């Protein structure tokens, strides 16, 4: 299963982190913005090209030390078709550099609609007996709170391609407890979601023991992560909330099993916008991102040993 691929990359680099590619135009250094606007004009196309050049620089700086990237589709959708075309180029470029690509799309629909989403992001669209792929990522994020029929079409598409998905279980945002911490019988809602997720994917365990349906578990709730790690032995965790949202390396350590496997920790602004803290004009954005990614890796390694 695809989480084997991700875990292999993590072990090879000794780095259980993923860099979020969630750039707004204001995150891009002025010199890149100006060059793009001069060529393509101030507008959606110019912004898309500036962000693409920013993404390429980040990928080049990170690809030998960070195993994965996670573009959040909202930061591309807001630029219309130009942004989505640029997202496709970004994904292709990251994969050409050997990086594992997680599309943060948080889709959560059912039936034929979920199948269409899964075709677009994972397995490809069937046209006249042929299959044509568009985004072709390794993994997606899903919102499974509509139930199992909002997850299964993605898992079916992923299984054909040896890909995978992360399903929202206990998220890092402050308001998550308004729903996810409600008591449902003898469990909390997020525990019900985690149990459902692991049950749906039973039988798809790979060589590391993890199914193809992972879980999003926020770093801002370390006690919940610790409990979920014990509860969901066969579920790989995606851990947002490190850094800018307040999560620490001490917090995220509970997402890993005794071998240092089974989780990957995300940082977006902490890496992308590291150049804003160097005192320069942004020409050092790639170096600053690399240094921030190394610092994050080393921070986590104080608490997590990967074997």
Question: Short description, anyone?
Answer:
The chain has 307 residues and is of the alpha/beta class. It has helices at residues 2-13, 30-40, 44-62, 74-77, 80-96, 111-123, 152-161, 177-180, 189-200, 222-231, 249-252, 269-272, 285-301; strands at 17-21, 68-71, 100-107, 125-127, 130-132, 139-142, 164-170, 183-184, 187-188, 213-217, 237-239, 263-267.
Task: Record keyword descriptors for this entry.
single chain, 307 residues, alpha/beta, eight-stranded parallel β-barrel, two-stranded antiparallel sheet, 17% strand
What can you tell me about this protein's structure?
The protein is an alpha/beta fold and 307 residues long. The chain has helices spanning 2-13, 30-40, 44-62, 74-77, 80-96, 111-123, 152-161, 177-180, 189-200, 222-231, 249-252, 269-272, 285-301; strands at 17-21, 68-71, 100-107, 125-127, 130-132, 139-142, 164-170, 183-184, 187-188, 213-217, 237-239, 263-267. An eight-stranded parallel barrel has the order 1-2-3-6-7-10-11-12, surrounded by eight helices.
Q: How many helix segments?
A: 13
Looking across the biggest beta sheet, what order are the strands in?
Answer: 1-2-3-6-7-10-11-12
Radius of gyration: 19 Å
Strand content: 15-25%
Q: Helix/strand/pairing class, anyone?
A: alpha/beta
What can be said about the biggest beta sheet? Answer: 8 strands, parallel, barrel
How far is it from the N-terminal to the C-terminal residue, by CA?
A: 19 Å
Low-confidence stretches: none
Mean pLDDT, rounded to whole units?
96
């Amino acid at each position: 299963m695809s989480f084997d691929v991700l875990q292999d990359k993590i072990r090879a680099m000794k780095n259980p982190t993923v860099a979020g590619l969630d750039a707004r135009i204001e995150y891009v250094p002025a010199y890149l913005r100006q060059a793009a606007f001069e060529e393509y004009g101030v507008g959606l196309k110019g912004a898309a090209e500036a962000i693409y050049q920013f993404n390429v620089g980040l990928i080049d700086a990170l690809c030998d030390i960070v195993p994965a990237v996670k573009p959040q589709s909202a930061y591309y959708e807001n630029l219309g078709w130009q942004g989505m075309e640029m997202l496709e180029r970004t994904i292709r470029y990251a994969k050409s550099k050997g990086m594992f690509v997680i599309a943060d799309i948080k889709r959560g629909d059912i039936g034929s609609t979920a199948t269409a989403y899964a075709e677009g992001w994972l397995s490809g669209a069937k046209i006249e007996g042929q299959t044509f792929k568009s985004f072709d990522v390794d993994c997606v994020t899903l919102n499974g709170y509509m139930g199992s029929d909002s997850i299964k079409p993605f898992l079916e598409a992923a299984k054909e391609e040896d890909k995978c998905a992360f399903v929202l279980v206990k998220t890092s945002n402050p308001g998550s407890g308004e729903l996810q911490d409600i008591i449902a019988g003898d469990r909390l809602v997020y525990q019900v979601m985690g149990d459902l997720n692991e049950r749906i994917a039973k039988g798809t365990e790979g060589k590391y023991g993890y199914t193809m349906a992972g879980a999003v578990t926020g770093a801002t709730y370390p006690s919940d992560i610790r409990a979920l790690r014990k509860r969901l032995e066969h579920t790989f965790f995606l851990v947002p909330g490190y850094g800018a949202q307040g999560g620490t390396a001490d917090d995220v350590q509970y997402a890993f099993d005794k071998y240092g496997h089974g989780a990957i920790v995300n940082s977006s602004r902490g890496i992308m916008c590291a150049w804003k803290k160097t005192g320069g004009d942004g020409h050092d954005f790639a170096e600053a991102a690399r240094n921030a990614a190394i610092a994050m890796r080393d921070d986590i390694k104080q608490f997590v040993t990967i074997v």
